[in-house]
Design brief:
Distance between the termini: 63 Å
Order of helices and strands: HHHEEEHEHEEHEEHEHHEHE
Number of helices: 10
Radius of gyration: 24 Å
Structural class: alpha/beta
Shape: elongated
Number of strands: 11
CATH class of one domain: Alpha Beta
CATH topology of one domain: Rossmann fold
Strand content: 15-25%
Strand order of the largest sheet: 1-2-3-4-5-6-7-8-9-10-11
Largest sheet: 11 strands, parallel
């Protein structure tokens, strides 16, 4: 059988073929040729668009599934009703306010790689009916989130990355996201005596970053955070270390092995990242000693890794 026109191809072949076209080219070349092509293109799951100040909003915006905004751009997101993936680079405060008031019923992925301020108010919207299908959220902010104004359960959210939070907000997030699987955060100083423990059974991956150099206080925080996630399987802990600690503290330190043994019965992988306060080079002998202390403390009860920067 000789196929003479592209219209003779089956729907499955056309769908696979259209994956190789940029969204703008796809609409320019094939849209409005006939109802069949229109239906195939509109149902395509890989329709993406990158917008900047020099880019005009196309007339096919209602069909876009993935949107990336690379400039401080003013935009009405209601023009993208089928949006499932949204990435914002350097959004303005006014745009963040607009995002808070936008209803994105199909949004599954939200990432803001670099946001300085305005994250606290935006963060509250994650736990609201505005994003009912949100599964993955990455908010790489520098602002401390000390409270969540309003929150409700988000049963869809599976992966969350945020900035500085304390134990109170940590508990609120866990209670609001019963199906959360992976959580990356930076620890903010907490008043530990004023809190109660909440147990989350579905969290498997936890990445904790703490720049507080008081490791004993760090261990108290770590104990509380781990006590909430008894079924954890993957744990990463990033800490800041000073040269004083190498001599006065590290030789007698158990590298929170007792806490991990008590709180994480199902742990399979532990990664610890050490960041020295100064830019001084750490000699090979010191690195070797640190690794020896670390390995001896955890005794191969799970797969372990130590990185030193």
């Amino acid at each position: 059988m000789i196929i003479s026109t592209i219209e003779s191809l089956s729907n499955d072949i056309l769908i696979e073929l259209f994956r190789y076209f940029h969204t703008s080219d796809l609409f320019q070349l094939f849209y409005n040729l006939n109802h069949r092509f229109n239906a195939i293109i509109q149902s395509h799951s890989n329709l993406y668009l990158t917008l900047s100040k020099t880019t005009a909003i196309p007339n096919y915006s209602p069909f876009i599934r993935s949107l990336t905004i690379v400039d401080d751009l003013e935009l009405n997101l209601n023009e993208f009703p089928n949006l499932s993936r949204l990435i914002l680079h350097h959004p303005s405060s006014s745009f963040l306010q607009h995002l808070e008031n936008s209803f994105l019923p199909r949004l599954e992925y939200l990432a803001i790689p670099n946001i300085l301020f305005g994250m606290s108010s935006l963060f509250s919207q994650i736990f609201s009916p505005r994003y009912p299908q949100l599964k993955i959220c990455h908010l790489f902010g520098f602002e401390t989130i000390e409270t969540i104004r309003t929150y409700a359960q988000n049963v869809c959210l599976r992966r969350l990355t945020i900035g500085l939070i304390d134990f109170h907000v940590y508990k609120l997030i866990l209670s609001s996201c019963p199906n959360l699987y992976s959580f990356d955060l930076q620890i903010f100083q907490s008043y530990l005596k004023l809190v109660e423990i909440y147990s989350h059974r579905n969290l498997k991956r936890l990445n904790l970053v703490c720049e507080i150099t008081d490791w004993r206080y760090n261990d108290q925080l770590l104990d509380c955070f781990l006590n909430c996630v008894p079924n954890l399987e993957y744990l990463t802990v990033s800490r800041t270390i000073s040269r004083v600690q190498l001599v006065e503290f590290i030789p007698d330190y158990d590298w929170f092995a007792s806490i991990v043994a008590l709180r994480t019965v199902y742990l399979r992988y532990l990664t610890v990242c050490l960041n020295f306060e100064s830019n001084d080079l750490i000699c090979f002998e010191i690195r070797r000693e640190l690794r020896r202390y670390f390995l001896n403390s955890h005794q191969n009860r799970y797969q372990i890794r130590l990185t030193i920067k």
